[in-house]
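Quick question: who can interpret this fold?

. . .
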Amino acid sequence: MTDREQYAPGPASGAQVRKDGEKWTLILVRELRHSPEKVWQALTDPAHLREWAPFDADGSLDAVGTVKLTTVGAPTPHVSEATVTRADAPKVLEYNWGGSDIRWELEAFGGGTRLTLWHNIDRRFISMGAAGWHICFDVLDHLLSGTPIGRIVGPEAMKFGGWQRLNAEYAKQFGIETPN
């Protein structure tokens, strides 16, 4: 069996939701055993993003400016312009993608990195977003550890063992109905 076949996501954890009317922000925290510099490269370099993120980038996200992001795994790829508004390596990365604000914070922690993601997501889909990012974080950790299992995103992630469970667990944690 390959590492990908053996992969199963752990329990829903490290997530919270900040609610401001209809605008909800997913906050997901993960501790990684890798340096902030290594994690920063994975968050900004198109070749690294291609291995774990739910989008491809036509350029680096490591500087303020515009880059095109293309969703992966969707029936029809959606290309949108993203504006990097802050790139303070290796600490803070902020960009707007498809009308959502995304913020990454990297903090040196115990010989590794505490990675925090803030992502504005429509409240109807916030548990789905949490489940998807949870799996992306797992794939990122495998990549940085030298045991890549390949990107698991979009409809493929939704069919993947453990995604439905994560979606239900996060929905329960957030106090919402489980979306389908």
Summary: The chain has one domain: 14-174. Strands lie at 15-20, 23-32, 55-57, 65-71, 79-88, 92-97, 100-109, 112-122. The helical segments are 3-6, 36-44, 46-52, 126-144, 154-159, 163-174.
